Queue: 3 jobs
Job 1
Amino acid sequence: MSFSESIDTVIKQFGHDIICSERFINILSDYGGFDLKAVKTVMRQLIKSGYGQKMYELDKEFHPDRNMKVKTYIAELTAMGFQNGYVSYTFDCLCHGLGWTYDNPILDPNVQDDSVNSMKKTFTVKGVEFSMVYVEGDSFDMGATPEQGIYAAFDEKPSVKVTVSSFYLGITPVSQALWKAVMSCNPSHHQGDDLPVERVTWFECQEFVKKLSAMTNENFRLPTEAEWEYAARGGKHAAHKRYAGADDNDLGAFIWCNDNSNGVSHQVGSLNPNELGIYDMSGNVSEWCADWYFNSYNNNNDKVNPQGPSSGIAKVIRGGSWSDKKMACRVSKRLSLNPNYKSKLVGLRIAKSK
């Protein structure tokens, strides 16, 4: 059955309300077939904005200028705040699925492009690939913002506006495969190359990024707490959600927590990403940050690229884990841990300055 026949069948069965349904999203993304997670995430936004219906009508009426119309749609959505690379990629997948002769090749967000600020960088260490996404800097409200509601704890208050410079952040937590390639060991409780590494101390993470930097001639590090929260919220493309990419009604598609994890960690990047295309920033494993922990934003007066206190007894961890209740996976939730401590709930994600 062709793409258009599939859509026709669904429309006849469910009517045009299907444009806003999950079934329609699945059909569209399956015909793209290149990166279903990325397609589905962007597709939901496109369909909510009415562009799924526009594509359907273009195909039915065979507009001679439909390529130009698609370029217009991409420009409109980019102006609304969606990331150009992912929007273009999704529309290109749709055009491919429709069998259109389209004057752009299938775009891939992994391909660096000056027009999207070199969105991704991919590195290889001893045959293990890992990718980082470009996070364009800006100012944002850090801490107990309105969508966090009554769940915001005392150390998330008061909300404070801070500015972070542009940087790169790991698209997933560090996998056990990458840790083994760099450190020649695997301390994790739950074993598996595609699982996030855990049971690593903050100091071991510092050794890891030092060795990784030497092996790649780069300068990797742990993210600051401000960078971590800014990226988890979606950066400049933030949709102001309680979790990374999700609200309470769609947690299962984005977050591994004690509601759905079955008591174990899961393959990195196996659920949906947030608005920046970053996976597992809520749930799966908590992640070490560079900063020493402080118990109130009132004590942090540095509003541009804050680094946290100069000393302390515990380091910040963020994101919540497979064992935590969902409220511990909120984007503003703050936890702390002695830097010498190991936990099967805590791993890391790497960052790099622009």
Note: The chain has two domains: 3-98, 120-353.
Job 2
Amino acid sequence: MSNNREIQHLRKLSILMDSKFTGPFGFKFGLDGLIGLIPFVGDFISTAISVYIILQGAKVGCAPSTIFRMGLNILIENLADMFPLFGNVFDFLWKSNNKNIELIENHLQNPRTATIKSRLALGLVAFSLLGFLIASVSISFLIFRSIFDWIVLLGS
């Protein structure tokens, strides 16, 4: 299958999963949010379809940084799914498959720019995680030090 036909197929699949139907007030939603309501298997089915889209992105030549960024979109959705009700609402809003198709199309139109943007996005994520780690360690240290000082003060 040619890249163009494969991308069209992936675009149709993405729309079906994320934005095929129109709800109240023009809100677009797809099967992803509906399938996610099925206990136990719903999120597995949705994730399997999302992984298929990522694998096809790799097959058509997306850079590793773009593939990782696509995986991050799926990871965010799956992390939200860990919280009952919130995760179901998030499925209707996040639309990770549509985001990932855009990443594939952007990469195919201009691979160099898409790769740079993906690397910058991943760098920002890594930098943010490092910042959260440093903040968590610092706050933990301050809390434990305060508790230690309080215990020492009580012992005096």
Note: The two ends are 78 Å apart (CA to CA).
Job 3
Amino acid sequence: MRKLYKFFTWMLVFIPVAVYMEYAGYPGLWVFFACVLAIVPLSKFLGKATEQVALHSNTMTAGLLNASFGNLIEVVVCVFALYAGLIGLVKASIFGSIIFNMLFLIGLAIFVGGIKHSEQKFDTMSARISTTMLLIAVIGLAMPTIFQITLGSENVQHVSDWVSVVLAITYICGLIFAFYTHKAYFDVIDNYVVEKIEPEWNKNFAVMIMIAASIFATWIASILVGSVEATMSTLGWSQDFIGLVIIAILSNVAETISAITMAWRNKISIAIEIGTSSAIQIALFVVPILVFISLLFQDRFSLVFNLFQIISALFAVLILNFLVADGKSNWLEGMQLISVYLILTIALYFV
């Protein structure tokens, strides 16, 4: 683990590299990949700092911290993309992150955990609650699109706005359920024993790292979005591919590493919860934020997505729901989830 943190620390050098390339007038493609390499360690340290501050707090505060900073990089990239008029990139990154968390993140965690442990057991109650919440989220995100296809686009923005309100309320209710009224369902369980996790950093240091990582992430995200169009024209990539694959992977580095680590330690319940919670947060928290932030911009953000994105997310929820039903996992099930994600990625590459 120390070697891994040392590796991410060395990767922080790409922050000044990306900034220098931007202001020195380097080609947009070079700037884009420098920003990609800079965001990876920022995502990791932001996730670590948020986790450490949460461990110094009570459960409700921890939940609010996770809601606020858990997908900060995703939010700032999408806000700058909205400002730049890259609506397609924003919509693709939303569904990309949801699908990535459900299929690749959880699949990789199950696969890695299954290599060391032939069979892993997890709490089916929390898994069922999370997958049900994900199904509701996908239905909510799909409804404005169905409305436009069947009834026309005249009021689709109003539908998107009100659906966003419902999604946000659902997310708040989920936080209250998980951290207050039914928190026992989501306790960190290891062989039915609650494990006390001690913080590694003191609170002040964790807060400073969290603030610094947030500032640099915002700066790098603005540069990244500015280089997207040059990257698209040079490599022939679409907004869908960049959003659904590249940005989705970048914004979920911290969660992926945490989930793999937990699965390797035979704490597969935590690994699955990391993936489902992140996907829920994007669908029910990040999306409403983006819809209402777009009020400040010339182009409004509506919840009208293409059918490929909606059907892919629906398939991901159904597959995940089926695999968690028995409360057991093995490496083959992880590989099955990964294979579905790779199939979707291959299809997107040729869009």
Note: The first helix runs from residue 2 to 11.
